[in-house]
Amino acid sequence: MVAWPAIIKYSGEDELSYIGSQSEWELDAELYAASLEAGDSLIDGQGQIYALVKNDQQRVVPRPSGQSATLAELVTLLRGHAAQSGVCCVAKLNARTIAEAIALVESIGDL
Hints:
The chain is α+β, with helices and mostly antiparallel strands and 111 residues long. 36% of the residues lie in helices and 25% in strands. It comes from Zobellella aerophila.
């Protein structure tokens, strides 16, 4: 079960998308489906990584991958996302927890 909030990590890209809740995911699932490619994943607030696959109804659903991201990996993703978004001094971006790193993705989107 996904621990919301979560982020979508696009394969080969620095861009991340913040998903605040299960209901937000369900409302925008078709939007995400249109831009998803093989290798894209969802990382939840506990660092669990989910593959994003289409079910029989062609809706995108997160499937547990059995893998998890470390805080250091998430900070690296966060810095890449911030740089791609035009934020300066990205080397100073840091987080104390996985949940905090994910919350910062939303903040970067508001800059």
